[in-house]
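User: For my dataset I need records formatted as: sequence, then C-alpha cells, nothing else. Please produce one.
Assistant:
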Amino acid sequence: MIIITIMIFHMTVRSYPMMRKTHLAARRAWRRLRPRLNSCFVGASSGPGHEDRSEDPSAVSAEKPPHMPVMLKEVVLDMTFGGGGHTKAILSTVPEVTVLALDRDPTAISLAQQLAKEHFGRVKPMLGRFSELEDLLSNMNVKPGSIDAVLLDAGCSSMQMDEAERGFSLSKDGPLDMRMDGDRYPDMPCAADVVNTLDQQALASILTAYGEERHARKIASAIVEARRVSPITRTQQLASVVAGSFPPAVLYARKDRLNRPAHVATKTFQALRIFVNDELNELHAGLRAAQTLLKPSGRLCVITFHSLEDRLVKRFLRGDDLSNLDHFSQRKQGTKKENLSHEKSDGSVYWLPLRRKVITPEKDDVKENPRGRSSKLRAALRR
C-alpha cells in the first residue's frame, strides 16, 4: 500500500519543548475526528469487497485492511505538530504502508530524510513543488492510478513562520523573503522584490486578490511612498509601513477567530506570501496530480488554513472550472441554472465527498493551539 503525503514538515517536539502542549492537542483532535469520520466511511466504502467494519475494532489489522484507516482516520488537524506528524501517525497505525513525502522546502526534506532513516524503506522523501509531483513520481516508476491515499496539507509551516530569517512573520524582524523554496531558485523574486518594484495598482491587486484586504489601495499607496525614501527590505519595516497608513486607534482593531487583536498588516503578509509562492496555482496542481495518481476508491484528504485555499478545494471536488484563478478570491453568486450546471460538470464524476460539511477543530484544541483555529479538512473518494 502506498500513500503520498503532500505536506509541510515542522519542528520536532523533542527539540522544542514548547511544542509538547500542541502535540497533545493534536492527538486529542485526532481521537475526536475518528468517530466523526467513521460515520461517513462505512457508506462510502460499501459495495463489493467492502464490508461494514464499524463494529469490529480489530478490522484494522485484518489481512487486507481497507483504505480508510490508512489515511482518513489518521489525519491530524494541527500544523504545529512537528517532525512530519501526519506521516508518523500513518506509519504507527499501518505497519505495511509506504509513505511518499513531498515538500518544496529543503529544510523540511532534511527532517523527512531523518524520518526515513528511522523507518527504513517506508518513507520516500521528495524535494519539489506540487506541480513537479508527477515528474518526481515518474522517475520513481510510480504510475498513475497506483496510489491508495493522498494527504495534501496546504499553506505555510510553523517552522517557516517561526524562523525570522525566512521572512514570513510580521512579529519577528528578518529579511523580507517569504520563499518556501528557500534558495533553491536564486532568481525567484522574493517579497522584497515585489514591494519594491511593482507599481501601486499591481500591489493593490495582489492585496485584494490574495489577502482580501479592504484597504488595499491605501496600503499600496503607503508602500510606494515609503520605498521612495528607502527600499523596504525587512519584515518589521513593512509591518510599520502598513501600520502607518492607519490611525493608531485601529492598529489592533481587527480580531482573529479567537477574538484576539490582529495586526493590520496580517492580510498584507498573507497576500505577499501567496503571490510569491504561487500558492493557489500550486494547490490546484496538487489536486490535479492527486486525481491522476489515486486508485479508484482511493482517498484524498486536504487540510487548508484560509478561505482562499478551502474555496479552491471545495470547487475542485465539486467539479467547477478552475482554469482561471486570477479572481478566485471573488465570491461569484451564479444563477440557479449556473449552480445546477456546476453540479453536473465533468469534474464531479471523479470525486465522492465523504462528508457533506467541512471538518473543523474542536474549541478546546483551538484554545491550546491557536494556529490551528482556521484549519479545515475535506475528504473525498476517487470514483
